[in-house]
Specification:
The protein is an alpha/beta fold. It has helices at residues 23-36, 55-61, 67-83, 95-104, 117-126, 148-158, 163-166, 177-186, 200-205; strands at 10-13, 20-21, 90-91, 108-116, 135-139, 170-174, 189-193, 211-212. The protein has a 6-stranded parallel β-sheet, with helices on both faces. It has a two-stranded antiparallel sheet with strand order 2-3. Strand 4 (108-116), helix 5 and strand 5 (135-139) form a beta-alpha-beta unit. The model has no long low-confidence stretch (mean pLDDT 95).
Length: 222
């Protein structure tokens, strides 16, 4: 392994708003899932409301559905997203170069997303970034693994280590309060992506202290 400026050995990336510009496809899928259920569509112009949190929580808290309706909403969303929404994705400028540099340093890299795991893997393939990731980790269909505090240990296990063993050697890069909160809850480091969809102040309130304005700035912060 060459001498590297990257101090962490395990690098976890959120997906939406960190690796991919995906808001248009997510908004389209959410709007049409709500319409399919015969419900009024709320104002979805503020991406911070629904890009970042688990999908079930979006239907509960943004759409104000009952729990059973929210479960149905998730199913409707996933069907629409699978056929249309997931293809409306592009990588942020500089992301591939960043991943290439980290990979060249011999570090382990994983996607750590609240998105359904199969969709996360497909999106990484659509973006042409599969070769850079040692694991792509996402949520389960049954909602048993959807929060970052659960996804972070899962991602580290997928990289061949554990939270207990390598907590100090791990970092997650993300653009929302949920990423910062998950890092604090699990005791790993956090780098906030200010270029994404999240709210800088909320990331800071959740415990975020280190932030990047562009993907390439991340390299010097991890």
């Amino acid at each position: 392994m060459k001498n590297s400026m990257v101090k962490h050995d395990y690098i976890l990336f959120d997906l939406d708003g960190t690796i991919s510009k995906s808001a248009e496809g997510i908004q389209y899928s959410l709007e049409n899932a709500i319409k399919a259920m015969g419900k009024p569509v709320p104002d979805l112009s503020d991406y911070t409301l629904y890009i970042g949190p688990p999908l079930l929580d979006t239907f509960l808290n943004v759409c104000h559905f009952t729990y059973d309706e929210s479960v149905q909403g998730v199913e409707a969303y996933r069907e629409i997203y699978n056929t249309k929404g997931k293809f409306v994705n592009t990588a942020y400028d500089g992301v591939e170069e960043l991943l290439k540099k980290i990979k060249a340093d011999g570090k382990k890299i994983a996607v750590c997303s609240s998105k359904y795991e199969l969709f996360a893997k497909e999106i990484i393939e659509i973006l042409g970034l599969t070769e850079y990731f040692d694991a792509v980790c996402g949520s389960t269909l049954d909602g048993s693994r959807k929060d970052k505090k659960d996804l972070i240990p899962y991602a580290l296990n997928s990289l061949g280590t554990s939270l207990e063993k390598d907590r100090e050697n791990a970092v997650i890069i993300g653009d929302t309060f949920y990423d910062a909160k998950g890092a604090v809850q699990t005791g790993i480091d956090f780098v906030g992506a200010k270029y994404g969809y999240g709210d800088f102040e909320k990331m800071a309130e959740a415990g975020g202290k280190v932030f990047a304005d562009t993907p390439l700035e991340i390299y010097d912060l991890i």
